[in-house]
Design brief:
Rossmann fold; 2 domains; six-stranded mixed beta sheet
Length: 274
């Protein structure tokens, strides 16, 4: 539950479009409360054509920062005064930190995934080619995956992401897949970075690790997570695991403190969406 706001409450926002149920407010507000901070996290609906205004508004209104999600993760890059090394390499931002009137862009999506899987030597299939896919695929390449294949409903977007990754990691086995939905092929790690929750999209025979960035705000497994559990995959990371991990890293960037991760996890596992 959102604590009472005061005239000195520090605000953090979530920029997304359309504005829908999200567990991030409950999660971050639980973390602020556990840390005894007079901070509050609020969801803000921002249409793409108003994104620059929204980022400028964060500064004008004294926000400490924001999270950035669908569909703004790549578009917001242009409105940051600076990027950290990870965001610059990924070309994707999910966390904004406002300090001294300047906006610093960061990305915690990639590390949230690479900390949860065995990336080195993995043969990766990435489903989707949006901002989250771009950030996580870059992190997997940097973590030493053996190969990476990108598949998306729009083949041109998959081609563009694969080309970008080959530029970042010359000589790495990176390619796009013309088919949709794709076959798992020789992949042993499948990452779903699409918003599809009700279709597993791929057959998981031979796949050892599965990560689904999506989650159901009301609870329950996505179709891919359910299929991965049924297939006996060795490691299954669901969207709530990723949400907590990336959120904890964002909390550190805003506050300079480590969050109570268990409080964050309880907020998303035990409460309805806010």
């Amino acid at each position: 539950m959102l604590r009472a706001l005061s005239g000195t409450t520090t605000l953090v926002g979530l920029l997304r479009h359309p504005l829908r149920d999200s567990l991030s407010p409950a999660m971050q507000n639980a973390a602020f409360a556990a840390a005894g901070l007079d901070w509050a996290y609020v969801a803000l609906g921002v249409e793409p054509e108003r994104l620059e205004d929204a980022v400028t508004g964060l500064v004008a209104l004294g926000f400490a920062g924001a999270n950035v999600t669908i569909p703004h993760k790549t578009g917001v890059v242009a409105y940051c005064d600076e990027l950290d090394e990870v965001a610059e390499r990924a070309g994707s931002v999910n966390t904004l930190v406002v300090r001294d009137g300047r906006v610093r862009g960061s990305s915690t999506d990639g590390r949230a995934v690479t900390d949860a899987v065995e990336a080195a030597g993995a043969r990766v299939l990435v489903l989707g080619a949006g901002g989250a896919a771009q950030a996580v695929a870059t992190a997997l390449v940097d973590a030493g995956c053996a190969s990476l294949r990108v598949a998306a409903r729009t083949p041109e977007r998959a081609d563009a992401l694969a080309l970008r990754l080959r530029h970042l990691a010359p000589g790495r086995a990176v390619r796009s897949d013309a088919g949709w939905p794709p076959a798992a092929g020789d992949a042993d790690l499948v990452l779903n970075a699409t918003p599809v929750l009700d279709d597993p999209l791929v057959e998981l025979g031979g796949v050892r690790q599965v990560v689904d960035l999506g989650y159901r705000p009301g609870g329950g497994d996505t179709a891919l997570v359910a299929a991965a559990k049924a297939a006996g995959c060795e490691r299954v990371v669901d969207g709530l695991d990723v949400l907590v991990a990336q959120g904890a890293l964002a909390f550190e960037r805003w506050t300079g403190r480590e969050p109570d991760v268990e409080a964050m996890r309880a907020a998303v596992r035990d409460r309805p969406a806010a």
